[in-house]
């Protein structure tokens, strides 16, 4: 079993089908998909930023995301477990919906994010292809113990040929420093909510966490020892 910070965390049914449909409908009303290379990505994407639209942010509960990520990376006790006044060490650097279209903007090359923690949350299932490809899963062959599914729902999707194909509404969290990319969409449109998160690093514990979150697809190439990866 891989350590939490070196794993890909899956939270099935994080958003309901109706919530996914509602968020997509709101994006369709705005219809201002940008395609320029912006500050949130290493590569150009076609997207709509939730941070620029209050109506979209109102449909997405940031606190729920923070709770799941804190749980996955064992940062601090969840606010739902008695820490109602605790300030999360997390904050959004960016939050946006990406639109992949077969034959147009249909894939995203392998890259590392500028954030320490990132997530993807598929909003649609009517496409073919797609998914998020991880270099570390390609290296693992058929051994996918690096993917940790939280909860009892096993119908979240699958890992195939190094690519995570998650069902709509499934939250997939990983270190932004893992090498990853968007699989090629071969039919219809694929919509994905993407989040980049900052981790507060003013205290020593959070500094160590930030260090452990660096490029875990190949830690041995970075000179890390097993002790460096321990919480």
TrEMBL record:
Gene3D superfamilies xref list: q2cbj1_9rhob like domain (2.60.120.620)
UniProt keyword Cytoplasm present: no
Keyword match Iron: yes
Signal sequence segment: 1-20
Entry keyword set: Dioxygenase, Iron, Metal-binding, Oxidoreductase, Signal
Cofactor: L-ascorbate
Name of this protein: Fe2OG dioxygenase domain-containing protein
